[in-house]
Specification:
The protein is built from 3 helices and 6 strands. By secondary structure, the protein is of the alpha+beta class.
């Protein structure tokens, strides 16, 4: 069973007990005037506790739903990243936020869509890399505004030979156009040549 199914089942259980509790509480409220102050205070505390637990479960479900949506969109962006690059398609910059930066090793940050376009143009024209693959290991965050992706990359030459492989750490930003690469940092697993 997926985590989403577990959360859905948990919410159903909490809702069932909440409805049962509310029905019992309504019965108690009919006798509210005859209750002692201590019993009234206990009743209010129990109602508040049940409300807090139900709200916490609902927030946990929403957080996981948002994070799963972010993961799905990031996977889609990663899947087309190198396809666009291999075609020398300038629209690869649309995978990045307008205020994004690429933080390449041993180089100054390249920011904005112009800087990012220059990065990809220079990399393509250098002739070494023609395709690649990004593997996501983990995505951290709540899926509301920013999430961080930890991953691996491999890049290949025109003959499919491995040119480089390494690690990535990408901060993704939720924009009006969806999840966009906001800060992209990567480093090779090999010493600089």
């Amino acid at each position: 069973m997926s985590d989403g199914g577990k959360f859905s089942n948990s919410i159903l259980v909490v809702r069932f007990f909440t409805i049962s509790f509310v029905q019992s509480t309504l019965h108690l409220f009919k006798n509210y005037k005859s209750m002692k102050n201590r019993e009234k205070l206990l009743l209010v505390a129990v109602i508040a506790s049940v409300h807090f637990i139900a709200s916490a479960q609902s927030n946990k479900f929403n957080k996981n739903t948002l994070l799963e949506e972010a993961k799905k969109e990031i996977a889609q962006n990663n899947a087309i990243h190198f396809d666009l690059y291999a075609k020398n398609d300038g629209s690869v910059v649309k995978l990045f936020a307008e205020d994004a930066c690429i933080l390449a090793p041993n180089a100054p940050a390249l920011c904005g869509r112009e800087g990012i376009a220059k990065f990809f143009k220079d990399a393509f024209e250098s002739g070494g890399v023609r395709s690649g693959e990004i593997t996501t290991l983990n995505i951290y965050g709540d899926g509301r505004e920013f999430v961080t992706e930890e991953g691996l990359y491999q890049v290949f030459d025109v003959n499919g030979n491995l040119v480089d492989d390494g690690k990535t750490l990408v901060l993704w930003k939720k924009t009006k156009d969806g999840w966009k690469d906001f800060r992209d940092s990567f480093s090779s697993n090999h010493p600089q040549k």
